[in-house]
Amino acid sequence: MSSEDPTTKELNNFVQTLLKQMSERFDEMQGTIVSRIDDMGKRIDDIEKSVTELMNDLGFSDEENEKQR
Fold first, then answer.
1. Predicted confidence band at 1 (pLDDT cuts at 50, 70, 90)?
2. Where would I find the beta strands (DSSP E) of 11-53?
3. 3 falls in which pLDDT band (50, 70, 90)?
4. DSSP label at 38?
5. Taking the CA of residue 22 as centre, how many other CA atoms within 13 Å lie in the half-sphere pointing to its CB?
């Protein structure tokens, strides 16, 4: 009698395939998340720059901002 019957081999193959698919999906999701975080960081930098420009246009300086904090 062999150590693995056909049903066990099928189950092992199924589990291996499923784990591989899950791993690939995880890698894909990880890349997407990192990309979105980078995009959010760029947007925050742009907002920060815009706020600084608006404050400068209104006559606020960086020194005044530091004193108020």
1. very low
2. none
3. low
4. H
5. 6
The rounded distance, in Å, linking the Cα atoms of 15 and 19 is 6
Looking at the chain, the whole-number percentage of residues with pLDDT higher than 70 is 84
**C-beta of residue 65 within 8 angstroms of C-beta of residue 55:** yes
Choose among 44, 41, 48: nearest CA to 65. Answer: 48
pTM confidence score: 0.59
* Alpha-carbon distance values, 61 to 14, 50, 64, 69 (Å): 64, 14, 5, 13
Tokens encoding 13? 């193959």
CA distance 54 to 44: 15
Q: Residue type for 4, please?
A: E
pLDDT, tens digit, 9 for 90 and up, residues 21-47: 999 999 999 999 999 999 999 999 999
